[in-house]
Design brief:
Number of helices: 8
Bound molecules: magnesium ion
CATH architecture: 3-Layer(aba) Sandwich
Number of domains: 1
Helix content: 25-40%
Radius of gyration: 15 Å
CATH superfamily: HAD superfamily/HAD-like
Number of strands: 8
Order of helices and strands: HEEEHEHEHEHEHEHH
Distance between the termini: 38 Å
Length: about 180
């Protein structure tokens, strides 16, 4: 993980208004279950799902950019109300540039949670590059924040918890739910 006195992680987290998620290996453990017809099934974690809903409720937009384009990821995006789902893009940077242009945001407003080499070009640009615990070594090196949990096991919820906490929004959300 990149570290040093020059990096004010909390200040970077406070500027984030868009969290972009990779799908395979981040929202899933990377496993791809093929049935005999070739249809791919994926396992998503319910903690991540509620985390995404909480982020949206707090005004933190969540997007998904996947190198693969498989129905399971698109269905999960629909289920969670993630409008900015983009599947089948190994080159993720142009997709993110388009999202930012449409929303009038910059890279500084963006966090990206990734795990593998295809995420590198985007992580090199965003204000807050984040990685899951079991990301590839080069991606861990690029990240300013690394989850304790591996991909597919609540790492997304952990990232959202970190961002909302840094932004002072986590306690207010919890107070609305605790009774
Ligand atoms: Mg991945």
């Amino acid at each position: 993980m990149r570290q040093g006195p020059a990096v004010d992680l909390t200040a970077r987290a406070r500027r984030v208004s868009l969290l972009v998620l990779d799908v395979d290996g981040v929202m899933t453990d990377g496993g791809l279950l093929y049935d005999a017809s070739g249809t791919v099934r994926k396992r998503f974690h319910v903690h991540d799902g509620l985390g995404i809903k909480l982020a949206q409720e707090a005004g933190l937009e969540v997007a998904m950019i996947s190198g693969l384009d498989q129905g399971a990821a698109a269905a999960r995006a629909r289920e969670l109300g993630v409008v900015e789902y983009h599947g089948g893009h190994l080159r993720k940077l142009p997709i993110l540039e388009d999202i930012l242009a449409r929303k009038g945001l910059t890279f500084e407003h963006t966090a990206f949670l990734g795990d593998d080499w295809v995420d590198g070009p985007v992580m090199a640009r965003v204000g807050l590059p984040m990685a899951v615990a079991d990301a590839q070594p080069e991606i861990l090196d690029m990240a300013l924040w690394v989850s304790r949990r591996p991909g597919g096991h609540g790492a997304v919820r952990e990232a959202i918890r970190y961002l909302l906490s840094a932004q002072g929004r986590l306690q207010g959300l919890w107070r609305k739910w605790e009774r």
